[in-house]
TrEMBL record:
Domain GST C-terminal: 87-206
GO molecular function: glutathione transferase activity; maleylacetoacetate isomerase activity
Reaction(s) the record says it catalyses: RX + glutathione = an S-substituted glutathione + a halide anion + H(+); 4-maleylacetoacetate = 4-fumarylacetoacetate
Span of the signal peptide: none
EC number: 2.5.1.18, 5.2.1.2
InterPro entries linked to this entry: Glutathione-S-Trfase_C-like, Glutathione-S-Trfase_C_sf, Glutathione_S-Trfase, Glutathione_S-Trfase_N, GST_C, GST_Zeta, GST_Zeta_C, GST_Zeta_N
GST N-terminal domain ranges (all copies): 1-82
CDD domains: GST_C_Zeta, GST_N_Zeta
GO biological process, one term: L-tyrosine catabolic process
Organism: Buceros rhinoceros silvestris
Cell location: Cytoplasm
GO cellular component entries: mitochondrion
Protein name: Maleylacetoacetate isomerase
Length: 210
């Protein structure tokens, strides 16, 4: 497999966690979202992913983009360890939490949106994340065990950790979100979350390395 990734992309990090959890080795092709006006806009990368976004994964003779589509494909083809609970209710909850982040928070504060916000980009990012986390905190108080949904790592956790990383980057006050904070701390102690961390990637700038 070949993963097209950017070290600080939260969407790429989700996929890196999934690959690590499932023990899938891969080659990494860095796509710098800031350098050269954004390497994602190159003709070469547009041929890989017409949406000009990371991540993209070449695997089993196909190219997949969109982090959840990639994770679900890995789940279908390499189901051990599973990232979707077997219980239908917990499975739905895991998907709900994942979608809450992937659709309801992250797109509102991604790079392309923040560029358009100009001087207000920090305030905008903080407001978008805080609004989403207020709802997510309430949801997780109902669904969480050790992790987002019960005591098994699920796709929900793969989405939560990168979003908390973004929140901390944008100086969001995490005080009102004790459940999110507790789960995030527990997940960051797991090896798959450590090795996939933005501070430990081949394309991580020297000053940001762990």
């Amino acid at each position: 497999p070949i993963l097209y990734s950017y070290f600080r992309s939260s969407c790429s990090w989700r996929v890196r966690i999934a690959l690590a959890l499932k023990g899938i080795s891969y080659d990494l092709v860095p796509v710098n979202l800031l350098k050269d006006g954004g390497q994602q806009f190159s003709a070469e990368f547009k041929a890989v992913n017409p949406m000009q976004q990371v991540p993209a994964l070449k695997i089993d003779g196909i190219i997949l983009s969109q982090s959840l589509a990639i994770i679900h494909y890995l789940e279908d083809t390499r189901p051990d360890p599973r990232l979707l609970p077997q219980d239908p209710k917990k499975r739905a909850q895991a998907r709900m939490v994942a979608d809450h982040v992937v659709s309801g928070i992250q797109p509102l504060q991604n790079l392309s949106i923040l560029k358009q916000m100009g001087e207000k980009k920090l305030e905008w990012a903080q407001n978008c994340i805080a609004s989403g986390f207020q709802a997510l905190e309430q949801i997780l108080q109902r669904t969480a065990g050790h992790y987002c949904v019960g005591d098994e790592v699920s796709v929900a956790d793969l989405c939560l950790v990168p979003q908390v990383f973004n929140a901390e980057r944008y100086n969001v006050d995490m005080g009102p979100y004790p459940t999110i904070t507790r789960i995030n701390k527990a997940l960051l102690e797991l090896e798959a979350f450590k090795v996939s961390h933005p501070s430990r990637q081949p394309d991580t700038p020297a000053e940001l390395r762990a």
